[in-house]
């Protein structure tokens, strides 16, 4: 307990899924939380995103740990809004020590319009850049930035046996955004090093959240079935990992995030941490 006691942590995409898990895990370890989420759907993304009620639930759950929490509806694509919301939250909580740039979407399939590429890239990469750059003026020596990547996003666009691993414009945008996150975090780690500010990326495999459990994702895993169900897709989920698991839990990623947020990792920067049951090794990505 108290591994991040006294720290203030910003988490984007905190309404549900990995973001909520990270916010709660860090609060339970002593951090005060700034929780942002778009709380709205994006037209090209054909599964529902978190709602204002979801973010309110995250806020309530964090408050029940006894930690302070500021929750705001913010779109990470809107840098001026991020500047304003972060500034107001820091004024209320007094400081900012950790940034968890987690917000992301993943609309897949050839039915996704070209706007899907734009939306995915703008949320998953531009949104990360906006979050980090809006937060930087508030960060000092010892601060930690953690960015959510993706094992699937690092697979070459030609995917497996010459077939697209992530199909359609949304899949293309997803893959590009996650590949650029790897380069961005490595480069920024060198830039921020003299200021003793760290930045690392965590790359999960399949995670048991709404991003995985939706019809578009099921179709990617079971293209042989016209309308695959969760049960259909779970037959093939384990194929991606070296370990015999269909997915990891959001809490597994939160453990990695907590380590990178804490002073236990005070000399860890530029790391591409795979929490993936060996998927990166199986796909030949770990050494890239």
What would you note in describing this structure?
- With 288 residues, the protein is of the alpha/beta class.
- The chain has a single domain (8-283), classed as NAD(P)-binding Rossmann-like Domain (Rossmann fold, 3-Layer(aba) Sandwich), CATH 3.40.50.
- The protein is 41% helix and 12% strand.
- It contains 10 helices and 7 strands.
- It has a 7-stranded parallel β-sheet, with helices on both faces.
- The longest helix is centred in the middle third of the chain and has 25 residues, at 168-192.
- The model is unreliable at 160-164 (pLDDT under 50).
Q: Helical percent range?
A: 40-55%
How are the strands ordered across the major sheet?
A: 3-2-1-4-5-6-7
Please mark out the parts with pLDDT under 50 across 5 or more consecutive residues, or reply none.
Answer: 160-164
Q: Please report the number of helical segments.
A: 10
Number of strands: 7
Described by strand count, sense and barrel closure, the largest sheet is: 7 strands, parallel
> What's the CATH architecture name?
3-Layer(aba) Sandwich
What is the arithmetic mean of pLDDT?
93
Oligomeric state, counting identical vs distinct chains? single chain
């Amino acid at each position: 307990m108290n591994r991040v006691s006294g720290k203030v942590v910003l988490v984007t995409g905190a309404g549900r899924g990995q973001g909520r898990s990270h916010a709660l895990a860090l609060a339970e370890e002593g951090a005060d939380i700034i929780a942002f989420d778009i709380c709205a759907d994006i037209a090209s993304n054909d599964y529902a995103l978190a709602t204002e009620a979801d973010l309110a639930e995250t806020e309530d759950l964090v408050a029940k740990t006894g930690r302070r929490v500021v929750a705001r509806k913010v779109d990470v694509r809107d840098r001026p809004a991020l500047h304003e919301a972060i500034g107001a939250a820091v004024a209320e909580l007094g400081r900012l020590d950790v940034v968890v740039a987690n917000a992301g979407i993943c609309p897949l399939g050839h039915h996704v319009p070209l706007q899907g590429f734009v939306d995915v890239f703008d949320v998953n990469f531009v949104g990360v850049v906006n979050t980090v750059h809006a937060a930087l003026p508030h960060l000092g020596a010892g601060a930690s930035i953690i960015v959510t990547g993706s094992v699937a996003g690092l697979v070459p666009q030609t995917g497996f046996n010459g077939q697209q691993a992530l199909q359609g414009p949304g899949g293309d945008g997803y893959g590009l955004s996650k590949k650029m996150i790897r380069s961005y975090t490595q480069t920024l780690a060198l830039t921020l090093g003299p200021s003793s500010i760290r930045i690392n990326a965590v790359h999960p495999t399949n995670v048991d959240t709404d991003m995985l459990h939706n019809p578009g994702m099921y179709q990617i895993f079971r293209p042989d079935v016209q309308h695959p169900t969760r049960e259909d897709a779970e037959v093939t989920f384990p194929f991606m990992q070296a370990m015999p698991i269909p997915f990891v839990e959001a809490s597994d990623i939160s453990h990695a995030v907590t380590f990178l947020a804490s002073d236990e990792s005070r000399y860890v920067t530029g790391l591409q941490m795979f929490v993936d049951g060996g998927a990166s090794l199986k796909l030949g990505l770990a050494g890239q």
